[in-house]
Amino acid sequence: MNNRSEHNLLSKQKEMLVVMTALSFIEQNALMTQAQLNDARRSLQALFIRTSGEETMLRKLVEILKVNKELHEAFSAISKISTSISTSVEIISKKINYLKQYVAKLQLTPQENSDFFAPFLSFTHLFQQKLLRFNQVMLHYLELREDEATRTHEFRIAQDASRRLKDRLSGKLAMRTGGEVEESIKQEVLGNFDFASAKEQLAASQRESRLEAKQIDVLLMEIKFMCQMAMNPDMREKREKREHSAATKEQVDDIFMRFTRALKYHPRLEQIKLFIVDYFKLYQRAYGMFVLDFDNFNKAVETITTNTEEYFESKTEDEDLRSKREKLRKYEGLIPFLEVTANLIHEYSDYSFDRFSRRVSEEVSLESSPWEHVGEELLVAKVAAEADLTTRLNV
CB-based contacts of 97: which residues, under 8 Å, 6+ apart? Predict the structure, then answer.
């Protein structure tokens, strides 16, 4: 065998030591599937590309799991606003139902009924229906905004994963052309981090949220207009009728004016006027409260979407997330180890195999290295790899 052939064989042996050490480490920690391991066995470059892709994929998954869990917890707190709305609607509905039962027990004259009580019950029923509808759309809006916040963070995570992977695969080790196999693996890995679909999902989610918010705005405007019709005309907003006409063609009785007119002709109303006025007050308070709830809800959601850390600093992790994060730490040690030892192959090309092996062991054992937290496992993997490599009949 000539010197060139011996040099090539020695270089191949050194590369195989690094590759097999990494593969042993990967198999021990179940970091790849068998098919991916087969790809990785072909060369150091293929191993690095595949490992980089798996690390990035796992990092993305860990971040998405973390965000989804933390968003769910944050929205559990925000959902208290929706719960408050539901409770308020339930209380108001009970009061309205009581009003219906109360009026049903009155022995009304036809004139009393037509002049006030029938229109008043009709007005009250319509108001109740709008409150129930508001409660329904707010519950749905909560789901949409939670989904939008999740999609926002998933897009950011996918975007960051794509950038990180491209930066890594533009480095020295990945750029060493090793043939069609490595290029094919590289394109496959990069293809997994195209964040276009995440961007499309985010846009669709934002569109749904906007449409639902517009529906809530219209509904609140309708409720507000009904409240205007249940207050003294001198206190009404002058532009309210124009705004309502632009938003809806719905006709609403001027129940306050109807009530003041009916008071003049029906003595019974004089006896219960404070009872009736309390319902007018109830409508005003309900509208004001729901507007505040809607505004506070939107502010809270925006804060979550733009300042995630503020909400999530002290959240605990579940077992699944801890397990994946632990795997991620294995990759975070393995990848810089591969980058460094790949350079060692070229830097110590004149070393014998035994001497090179000792140099790799020294590198693994370095303190304060990026792989220090997996150093012992790497040494165990190296021992297994060297035993396998040195007992092969052919390399």
Answer: none
